[in-house]
């Protein structure tokens, strides 16, 4: 069995797309519901990556473990990749469901600002010689991120249709999507971890 994180990333991602294509429809959204399920699971996984990066960063700082610092770095970078992809996906979701892009939607504008801050942070951290700064940066960023996301008000964006749904099949499909996308995210984090390891040895 191949150990390539990149290959397994695409395998799990393809399985998630295939699963979403056969997900049950919702009466309001119709066929677009499948895209919404995928989009929702994707953003949850991105947030889990930021949380995991913060937790590993805290462990690295408290225990002074270099491996924890490296995993914090890998998870933080993977989370940023997923978050940027989520924003690009959001543009398409808005176009399909709202027949246009509402740039001032708080649930797009604030995440966009967080993506810009996160990108600048990761670029800046990559120039620092001590990897412990990455753990600290990921920890602070996660605090700012979740505080900012907590109070977001929506204009056109609905509340989570999955959490409010009483259709068990929809919830089960969503959980399965979460598992597959999380598996893909883990492979992306592994890729970042191994890539950084090769870079440090060269």
Could you give a quick summary of the protein structure above?
The chain is an all-alpha fold. The chain contains 7 helices and no strands.
Spatial separation of the terminal alpha carbons: 27 Å
Q: What's the gyration radius in Å?
A: 18 Å
Number of domains: 1
| Largest sheet data | none
The percent of residues in helical segments reads over 70%
Principal-axis shape equals: globular
> Helix tally?
7
Q: What is the element string, with H for helices and E for strands? A: HHHHHHH
Average pLDDT, to the nearest integer? 86
Query: Would you identify the regions where 5 or more consecutive residues have pLDDT less than 50?
Result: none
- Beta-strand level of the residues, as a percent range? under 5%
Protein structure class: mainly alpha
Please count the beta strands (DSSP E, at least 2 residues each): 0
